[in-house]
Amino acid sequence: MKRTPLYQTHVSAHAKLVDFAGWEMPIQYSGVVDEYQTVRTAAGLFDVSHMGRLTVEGRDAVAFLQLVTTTNPDPLAVGSAQYSMVCNPAGGIKDDIFIYRLAVTRFLVCVNASNREKIFSWFCAKAPQGDVRLEDESSYLAQIALQGPRSPEILKAVCPDAAGRLKPRQCLETSILGAQGVVSRTGYTGEIGYELYLPASSAAAAWEALMKAGAASGIKPCGLGARDLLRLEVGYLLYGNDMDEQTTPLEASAAFAVDFAKGDFIGRPALVEQKEKGPAKRLVGFELVEKGVPRHGMSVVADGKDIGVVTSGNLSPRLQKGIGLASVQSKFAEPGTRIQVDIRGRAQEATVVKPPFYKRK
């Protein structure tokens, strides 16, 4: 298995390590729920260096991203970021990504760990003959996420420029403990938070500095288990669970990430056709009416017939009820619709709701 630059840090902190997309990653330290509560009330620190980090640079960088992504990067201001998707010609989602505009002709693209090689190869194959330079920076850059309501004060001790000026979905190239990097006001938890992109050689020192700066604020290291629970409560999608290449953005209820007005892009004709006809299936949120824990892969039933499948599910510590996302036939996608989830052979009542399940005040 591959290891991030922070592997030894996790071992020293007695993290429980698991195989995640071919990476030896911490699933938990003090416990999933304890780490979840820490992020909701104080601050948590995540190693997300397994993610892919690609750079797109050149005079034709905007035109290239217009072609291979579903959103419009042209009006994106320098120092801003946007969520987007990469589709195949049939409209299926190859990956969901974040695009950071670092300069007029230079972008940083964050992709999922399991899709890094696939997306980089796809980008290289689709690059035009013009001035576009692509590079996979994943081995050279580490990525750390600082998340939670106390994160601004913690970041201020390590990177005061970024802590004092960044608004949601903004980014800044700046010095992080003497090393040049990027700090963004983004995250996967629904809380105030930041992501730090910095040289791999500086990752351990930055992690230690953030832990030290956040000691009085109650900061804790957090694993992928808490991260998954946090993202589910705010309805953020997980590639490979809630979507894949057989799922379109419209079927994933992510039409907000598709700009049909920007002009042509890979997958647009298929998505236009699906938009006109209406998708046959939709991703919905649901809450269990009675006690139970829904899990990925469980069947969803209505009127005694299978109508879909749970794509993500868990017990929400905040709501104290089972919540989840499910891909169902579109006629059952309206909020308030009653459905059932087959949990170990027992059909348990649930109600379709519109995510997020939790929203920060």
Can you describe this structure?
The structure is a single chain. This protein is of the alpha+beta class. The protein has three domains: 7-51 and 139-233, Probable tRNA modification gtpase trme, domain 1 (Gyrase A, domain 2); 52-136, 2-Layer Sandwich (Alpha-Beta Plaits); 280-353, Aminomethyltransferase beta-barrel domains (Elongation Factor Tu (Ef-tu), domain 3, Beta Barrel), CATH 2.40.30.110. 22% of the residues lie in helices and 35% in strands. It is built from nine helices and 19 strands. It has helices at 7-12, 32-41, 61-68, 116-126, 151-158, 160-165, 203-213, 224-233, 268-277; strands at 16-20, 23-28, 44-47, 52-57, 80-87, 93-103, 106-111, 133-136, 141-147, 171-176, 179-184, 193-199, 220-222, 281-288, 299-302, 305-316, 321-329, 338-343, 346-353. The strands form four sheets. It has a six-stranded mixed beta sheet, sandwiched between helices. A hairpin with an 8-residue loop joins strand 11 (179-184) and strand 12 (193-199). Helix 5 crosses helix 7 (203-213). It is globular. The mean pLDDT is 97.
CATH 2nd-level architecture of the largest domain: 2-Layer Sandwich
Which superfamily, in CATH terms, is the homologous superfamily of the largest domain?
Answer: Probable tRNA modification gtpase trme, domain 1
The total of beta strands comes to: 19
Would you tell me the structural class of the helices and strands?
alpha+beta
Overall pLDDT confidence:
97
Q: Taking strands numbered 1, 2, ... along the chain, how are they ordered across the largest sheet?
A: 10-11-12-9-3-13
Radius of gyration: 20 Å
| Number of domains as seen in the coordinates | 3
Tell me the strand percentage band. Answer: 25-35%
CATH topology of the largest domain: Gyrase A, domain 2
